[in-house]
């Protein structure tokens, strides 16, 4: 072996262990996950999304999870994440996004919200322009479709209660869309505010006392995390329920129409991957769901004494029996 080759190989032999040691001591990227009311659904789906991009918590990525029991806790939890020096904040819902954005205009935020343009999170879907990007659920645009499905289920229906959380910035858009659809369908709406878990019992009871024939839930993480409780209360009052997420139908809500919530939460991992690799939120277009699903719970229908029309069953993407 020539002397030059020996020196090169010898130098590499020394350098390899040093490089390996340096790689082992390099701190792992740290991101935050901020949500309210999703229960374990959001965190579990997000972990699945991360695995799809090759991330394993504790091995090549650290995730700080903060879940608020009530929306009022979000500001303090967002501050905790910022203090822990996270590189990205992933938000489950508009309220979480608003809390994070109120405290930082520099840390990248990956949102999951109904209409991030309308509430000012981003300048436009194609060019977000700030430190926020992510996924839009398009909830306002499909709110009218839910009432149409309810009318298809119960053609004689005339009075519908609408439960909403006015503290969620994007729900106002869904309420207005629902009002417009109700006018077209000759439905009378009873709008009931539900700002906390403690208020849900009273809202469902108020709907029953006002002789509502069904309850429509406006999309919000507060309801996502407590869909089983709402379903149980509504069934006790003999009220059909309609929501945006099929996950809620799995725990007793009668019917849902909306984007696949688990799929869009998983998709947030794509934005995390791109940002960790150097992309800026301002340059990552906000994505919209391309598919909306109808789900029906036949067990709930049977309990309520309802027969689901064949044409509605035929169009359902998922039927819970």
Give your account of this protein's structure.
With 321 residues, this protein is α/β, with parallel strands linked by helices. It has 2 domains: 27-138 and 261-291, 3-Layer(aba) Sandwich (Rossmann fold), CATH 3.40.50; 139-259 and 293-320, Response regulator (Rossmann fold), CATH 3.40.50. Helix content is 44%, strand content 19%. It has 13 helices and 12 strands. It has helices at residues 3-25, 41-52, 74-83, 94-103, 139-153, 171-184, 200-209, 221-224, 227-236, 246-249, 261-276, 298-304, 310-315, and strands at residues 30-36, 62-68, 88-92, 109-113, 132-136, 159-164, 188-193, 215-217, 241-243, 255-259, 292-297, 318-320. Strands 7-6-8-9-10-11-12 form a 7-stranded mixed beta sheet, with helices on both faces. Strands 2-1-3-4-5 form a 5-stranded parallel beta sheet, with helices on both faces. The radius of gyration is 24 Å and the shape is elongated. Mean pLDDT is 87; it is low at 1-23.
Main features:
321 residues, Rossmann fold, 2 domains, seven-stranded mixed sheet, 12 strands, 44% helix, 19% strand
SSE map:
Blueprint: H1 3-25, E1 30-36, H2 41-52, E2 62-68, H3 74-83, E3 88-92, H4 94-103, E4 109-113, E5 132-136, H5 139-153, E6 159-164, H6 171-184, E7 188-193, H7 200-209, E8 215-217, H8 221-224, H9 227-236, E9 241-243, H10 246-249, E10 255-259, H11 261-276, E11 292-297, H12 298-304, H13 310-315, E12 318-320
Parallel strand pairs: 1-2, 1-3, 3-4, 4-5, 6-7, 6-8, 8-9, 9-10, 11-12
Antiparallel strand pairs: 10-11
Helix pairs in contact: 2-11, 3-4, 5-6
């Amino acid at each position: 072996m020539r002397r030059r080759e020996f020196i090169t190989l010898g130098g590499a032999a020394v350098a390899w262990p040093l490089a390996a040691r340096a790689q082992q001591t390099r701190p792992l990227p740290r991101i935050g996950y901020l949500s309210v009311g999703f229960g374990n659904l959001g965190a579990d789906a997000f972990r699945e999304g991360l695995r799809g991009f090759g991330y394993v918590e504790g091995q090549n990525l650290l995730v700080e999870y903060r879940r608020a029991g009530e929306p009022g806790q979000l500001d303090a939890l967002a501050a905790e994440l910022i203090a822990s020096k996270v590189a990205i904040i992933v938000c489950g819902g508009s309220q979480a996004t608003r809390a994070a954005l109120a405290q930082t205009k520099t840390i990248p935020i990956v949102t999951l919200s109904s209409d991030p343009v309308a509430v000012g999170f981003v300048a436009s879907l194609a060019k977000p322009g700030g430190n926020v990007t992510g996924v839009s659920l398009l909830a306002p645009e499909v709110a009218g479709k839910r009432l149409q499905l309810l009318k298809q289920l119960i053609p004689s229906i005339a009075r519908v209660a609408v439960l909403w959380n006015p503290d969620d910035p994007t729900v106002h858009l869904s309420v207005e869309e629902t009002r417009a659809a109700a006018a077209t369908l000759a439905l009378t709406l009873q709008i009931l505010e539900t700002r906390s878990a403690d208020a849900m019992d009273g809202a469902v009871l108020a709907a029953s006392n006002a002789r509502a024939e069904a309850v429509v839930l406006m999309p919000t993480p507060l309801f996502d995390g407590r869909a089983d409780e709402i379903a149980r209360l509504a069934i006790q009052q003999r009220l059909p329920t309609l929501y945006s997420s099929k996950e809620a139908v799995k725990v007793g809500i009668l019917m849902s129409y909306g984007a696949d919530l688990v799929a869009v939460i998983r998709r947030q991992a794509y934005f995390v991957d791109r940002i960790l690799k150097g992309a800026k939120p301002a340059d990552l277009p906000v994505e919209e769901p391309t598919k909306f699903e109808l789900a029906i719970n036949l067990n709930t229908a049977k309990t309520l004494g309802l027969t689901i029309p064949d044409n509605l069953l035929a169009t359902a993407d998922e039927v819970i029996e």
